[in-house]
Design a protein that fits this description.
The complex is a heterodimer of chains A (217) and B (249). Chain A contains 8 helices and 5 strands. Chain A is an alpha+beta fold and 217 residues long. A 5-stranded antiparallel beta sheet of chain A has the order 1-2-3-4-5. The radius of gyration of chain A is 21 Å and the shape is globular. In chain A, helix 4 crosses helix 7. Chain B contains 10 helices and 2 strands; from the N terminus they run H-H-H-H-H-H-E-E-H-H-H-H. A two-stranded antiparallel sheet of chain B has the order 1-2. Chain B has one domain (26-224). Chain B has helices at residues 2-14, 30-58, 61-74, 76-85, 89-104, 126-132, 151-160, 174-191, 196-200, 205-221, and strands at residues 140-143, 147-150. Chain B is mostly helical. The chains are: A alpha+beta (217), B mainly alpha (249). At the A-B interface, helix 4, helix 5, helix 6, strand 5 and helix 7 of A face helix 2, helix 9 and helix 10 of B.
Chain lengths: 217, 249
């Protein structure tokens, strides 16, 4: 009996190891194509939200941290920070670069995650196949947000290949680019105040002076 | 004659328009535009948004959809005329059919029956026509109450007035036209209520609206497929500035 157990344990271990190398070699060989990455990320998020929607509505902090952990592997946040800071990137210290990157990411999550929670079951994302050359290092994935009441909203994800995986570096809603928009805002604000003040503003989560009161849907 | 020379002067002002990226636009009037924008925000906060959100609360969404459809259809001749001005003749034909279909079977435009029949809505206007033929946006302008525009789109707006069909009928009084325009304003504002939250989350609302307006117009000019805008900045491996450096004043 003992021998049987130890033998099956050994077999199991061997099988697991084989499986492990298989998975590792597989992921090294085939890079998940960009449209597949977007599809995977959105379906993961959507299913997590629909399973835990009540919990997340009560506990926003848990919701934000779930979104953070789920999406961070799909976004190239250092590159986004660099694109947005543009000229200011050159003069920023390593610490300022890092702080901006994190503060900006958190600000985006705070701004957009609520909409995810609100619309997770009334909006469906239709991701189109990406058209690109096999050796491309940049690609745009187009998708449509299908709504029940209103025409679909086109959303495009600009992605690039980094360390063998496709990562998002810009999102365009009806061609309104997140990067160009925040780049111009940050440039204007840095000019008016300083990069440290802009980062502090982002970190505090209170970017604007005039509050907008609650709106009907 | 006076009208003609006015139009000629405006067209001439367009020739000076060049293309600038939306993150670094021509905004020489920023010092004037910003206070006007602040005024518009106040007017929106105290008048337009409360009215629009009240409208959205009281009127059921199906009825609001009908109102939106009605206005989209009422102003659709603008799209048809500009299809032709952009030499998009096939699209112009389809849009004419769409207009006829929605005006008749769609009960004056309240129902959008044409979209389901393969005649989707297009969005064209004279500002886009200028852009299509290579005219740049020119300066960014913020108009009191009317909101953001550019030299090019402002001129286009004037030109598009001739395709507003209500003025050619005697059966609609001036008062009724005014009421319709008021309802249209409330309708368009109510469609944007969902975006208030996004506007609130910006670092600089003026710059946000400016960039968003310019990007959206560029998207419309290129019918949804604008050429990639050069971000003017690629991968940068530059060393960060030394941490000891004093924060810039």
């Amino acid at each position: 009996m003992k021998r049987f157990l130890s033998r099956s344990a050994a077999t199991l271990a061997a099988a697991l190891m084989a499986l492990g190398t298989l998975v590792a070699s597989n992921s090294a060989l085939a890079v998940t194509p960009p449209d597949e990455v977007v599809r995977k990320a959105s379906s993961e998020l959507q299913s997590d939200i629909s399973q835990n929607v009540e919990k997340y509505q009560k506990d926003k902090a848990a919701f934000y941290s779930m979104v953070d952990t789920r999406i961070q592997q799909y976004f190239d946040t250092p590159y986004i920070a660099q694109l947005i800071l543009a000229q200011n990137w050159k003069t920023a210290t390593a610490d300022q670069r890092k702080r901006f990157e994190i503060a900006f990411k958190n600000m985006l999550i705070r701004s957009y995650a609520d909409a995810l929670l609100q619309y997770h079951d009334s909006v469906k994302a239709e991701v189109k196949a990406a058209q690109m050359a096999s050796d491309a290092t940049k690609a745009t994935v187009n998708s449509s947000l299908m709504r029940k009441d209103g025409p679909p909203i086109p959303v495009a994800f600009d992605m690039r290949l980094k360390d063998d995986s496709w990562k998002v570096y810009d999102i365009k809603v009806e061609n309104i680019s997140l990067v160009t928009n925040f780049r111009s805002q940050v440039a204007a604000q840095v000019k008016a105040t300083s990069i440290d003040e802009v980062i502090t503003k982002l970190e505090s989560g209170q970017q604007v002076v005039a509050p907008v009161r609650g709106s009907a849907s | 004659m006076g009208r003609l020379s006015w139009a000629a002067a405006m067209l001439l002002s367009l020739s000076a328009c060049a293309h600038s990226p939306s993150y670094d636009p021509q905004d020489p009037l920023e010092k004037v535009n910003r206070p006007i924008f602040a005024f518009n925000l106040k007017a929106d906060q105290y008048v337009l948004r409360p009215v629009a959100s009240g409208y959205a609360k009281v009127v059921p969404s199906l009825a609001r959809r009908g109102v939106s459809n009605f206005f989209d259809n009422l102003f659709y001749p603008t799209t048809i005329v500009n299809d032709v001005l952009q030499a998009k003749f096939v699209q112009g034909g389809k849009d004419t059919l769409r207009f006829v279909m929605n005006t008749t079977i769609g009960l004056g435009g309240v129902l959008d029956v044409a979209t389901g029949q393969g005649f989707p809505r297009h969005n064209e206007d004279l500002g886009q026509t200028f852009g299509y033929w290579g005219v740049g946006t020119g300066w960014y302008l913020m108009l009191p109450l009317l909101g953001p525009t550019t030299n090019r789109d402002f001129v286009g707006r004037f030109g598009d007035n001739w395709t507003e069909i209500l003025q050619y009928t005697d059966s609609v009084t001036l008062g009724e036209r005014g009421a319709l325009l008021g309802l249209q304003l409330v309708d368009s504002r109510s469609r944007l209520l969902g975006a208030d939250r996004a506007l609130n989350d910006q670092l600089d609302q003026y710059v946000f609206i400016r960039t968003a307006y310019l990007d959206r117009r560029r998207n419309l000019v290129f019918d949804g497929n604008p050429p990639e805008e050069d971000l003017g900045f690629d991968e940068d491996d530059s060393e960060p500035a030394p941490a000891a450096s004093a924060p810039s004043p």
